[in-house]
Amino acid sequence: MNRVSRMGSMLRTPTLLPLLARMKKSGHSMSLTDAADVAKISPTHLQRIFAARVKESPAKYQQRLRLERAAADLRSSGLRITMKEDPMATSEITRESIDETPTVVARRRVDKDQMADALAECLPAAYGYVMEAGLTMAGPPFVRYLSQSAAFFEIEAGVPLVEPAGAVHREDLFASALPGGDAAVAIHHGSYESLGDTHLAIDRWINDNELTASGGPWEIYLTDPGEVPNPNDWQTKIVSPLA
Predict the structure, then answer these.
(1) C-alpha dihedral, 131 to 134 to 138 to 139, nearest 10°
(2) Cβ pair 140, 70 in contact under 8 A
(3) Banded pLDDT at 13 (limits 50, 70, 90)
(4) CA distance 157 to 123
(5) 222 in helix, strand or coil?
(6) In this structure, what are the phi and psi dihedrals at residue 144, rounded to the nearest 5 degrees?
(7) Cα(60)–Cα(128) distance, rounded to whole angstroms?
(8) Which residue from 91, 83, 77 is spatially nearest to 193, judged by alpha carbons?
């Protein structure tokens, strides 16, 4: 069913219209019971109708909305990696051993001034594929910086998985993995605009401890801006692999 037909089916289901509007407007997830109350039908009936008309469960639909809102916040923040020092933005930096994590990603060569727009396209695309393919996410979305020049980033942006995706049948998406091994890890507190503070602190910590970075770092967006609207309360995990 194409997008127009799908939307037509949704509009011909009056019981879902108030619910879909509420879900899109709200920054918080609704339980199945609460959603059924809004739709004025039983939870079992709602689950069945929702899956038939929207082509995903209420929980997955709301998760997709949250990711789309987060991507929109990335775009509106004008995300840039700036290098200015603010020690309050960075938690304690630790050396941790992490496991390799399979992923589905979009790869881009991105102008540094266009990072927010790129992520706003890449993350929903990867999430949508994972949901359609019936794969299980292992955590929040991320972006990995594979390399950079004065003007560009080479990135992988997507979602982590519990199990490898296998063949990905999309020209714009790929099966990949976040590497395992030792890494320098910190939590950035605050808006995306100041993420460079924590990247800079990690780089200095690696040098001070006579360690060597190995491969590009990545950011894991722990906070859902739809649920936590104040950027000062956002948390982003930054991981820098070590040799």
Answers:
(1) 10
(2) no
(3) very low
(4) 6
(5) coil
(6) -115, 135
(7) 10
(8) 77
The three-state secondary structure class of 80 is coil
Q: Are 167 and 145 in contact (CB under 8 A)?
A: no
Query: What does residue 198 show for φ and ψ, rounded to 5 degrees?
Result: -75, -35
Residue 3, token pair as written in the block = 């997008």
Select the CATH number that applies to the domain covering 79-241 from these four: 3.10.310.70, 3.40.980.10, 3.20.80.10, 3.30.710.10: 3.20.80.10
Gap between the Cα atoms of 128 and 160, Å rounded: 13
- Which of the 8 DSSP states describes residue 179? P
Q: What separation in angstroms does the CA of 173 have from each of 12, 38, 107, 145, 152?
A: 33, 36, 7, 16, 20
Could you tell me which residues are beta bridge partners of residue 158?
105, 142
Q: Render 130-167 in DSSP notation, one character per residue.
A: HHHTT--B-SS-EEEEEEE-SSEEEEEEEEEBSS---S
| Closest CA relative to residue 56, chosen from 69, 45, 47 | 47
Q: Can you give the residue ranges of every domain in the chain?
A: 3-55, 79-241
Alpha-carbon distances of 181 from 99, 142, 222, rounded to whole Å: 6, 18, 21
pLDDT tens digits, one per residue of 180-208 = 999 999 999 998 888 888 999 999 999 99
Dihedral sign of CA atoms 137, 138, 143, 144 in order: negative
The residue behind tokens 């194409």 is 2
State the pLDDT confidence band at 72, using cuts at 50, 70 and 90. low
Instruction: Say how many C-beta atoms besides its own lie within 10 A of residue 183's C-beta.
Output: 23
